[in-house]
């Protein structure tokens, strides 16, 4: 009896882990959809100005607006970290 209940618990844990995995997949898909939105600042141009801070970056603005934020010493509009650099992104 004991052995069977352990087996059942393992199956349940697997099912929960599977559900969590699906949730993560959906989340990354939402991120891709966000990428296709226009620039957060001008709402016109595509998001191709990657705002770099440390070892991470936020892709929320076009290259022109991202450069403008950096020049004006504004922080990243998403996480408020200091902008270390702006990179022009090419989708390929
Ligand atoms: Zn812009
Ligand atoms: Zn940021």
TrEMBL record:
<dbReference type="InterPro" id="IPR013083">
    <property type="entry name" value="Znf_RING/FYVE/PHD"/>
</dbReference>
<dbReference type="GO" id="GO:0010468">
    <property type="term" value="P:regulation of gene expression"/>
</dbReference>
<keyword id="KW-0862">Zinc</keyword>
<dbReference type="GO" id="GO:0016567">
    <property type="term" value="P:protein ubiquitination"/>
</dbReference>
<protein>
    <recommendedName>
        <fullName>MDM2 proto-oncogene</fullName>
    </recommendedName>
</protein>
<dbReference type="Pfam" id="PF13920">
    <property type="entry name" value="zf-C3HC4_3"/>
</dbReference>
<keyword id="KW-0479">Metal-binding</keyword>
<dbReference type="GO" id="GO:0061630">
    <property type="term" value="F:ubiquitin protein ligase activity"/>
</dbReference>
<keyword id="KW-0863">Zinc-finger</keyword>
<dbReference type="GO" id="GO:0008270">
    <property type="term" value="F:zinc ion binding"/>
</dbReference>
<dbReference type="GO" id="GO:0043066">
    <property type="term" value="P:negative regulation of apoptotic process"/>
</dbReference>
<dbReference type="GO" id="GO:0002039">
    <property type="term" value="F:p53 binding"/>
</dbReference>
